[in-house]
Design goal:
By secondary structure, this protein is of the alpha+beta class. Helices cover 27% and strands 46% of the residues. It has four helices and six strands; from the N terminus they run αααββαββββ.
């Protein structure tokens, strides 16, 4: 029984987020806010975390789909199914006013896993605040339980 419990716990991804008050936590602030805006289907809140001129790019099955932030934000309107994107074990690198976050993610629709992959957030610090310049993600519908 204990082995079954431990195996179940190992199958559940856990987020390892940086401690509050660290430079890494500051970088994660707009990333977390952007993901919360996706869940809330709030296009204006998505734009508030981004740098104008930046973009969102998905790569799936060898196809690249790139869109500017306004187009991306336009995809998230109130109503319809419930969205949730959860990231796990973010790797955060910072050099001066640039940073990147690389993290596995799972995207759920109405609580059911729809797809997963890796997110790569490209951030810049302007006027003392971190903002997402670009996000690129891979997408697959298999192997999401790992």
């Amino acid at each position: 029984m204990i082995l079954a419990f431990l195996a179940a716990q190992a199958a559940v991804p856990t987020a390892n987020l940086p401690p509050p008050g660290t430079p890494e936590a500051a970088v994660m602030t707009p990333v977390n806010a952007l993901l919360a805006a996706v869940s809330a289907k709030d296009g204006a809140a998505i734009l508030a975390q981004t740098v104008p001129g930046g973009s969102a790019t998905s790569v799936a099955d060898g196809k690249v789909n790139r869109m500017g932030w306004p187009e991306m934000a336009d995809r998230f309107k109130p109503g319809g199914p419930r969205y949730e994107e959860v990231i796990f074990d973010p790797a955060i690198d910072i050099d001066g006013d640039i940073a990147m976050v690389w993290a596995r993610y799972v995207f759920r629709i109405d609580g059911k896993t729809h797809h997963c992959g890796v997110d790569h957030f490209d951030l810049v610090r302007t006027e003392g605040h971190w903002r997402v310049l670009n996000i690129t993600w891979s997408s697959r519908a298999t192997g999401c339980d790992q």
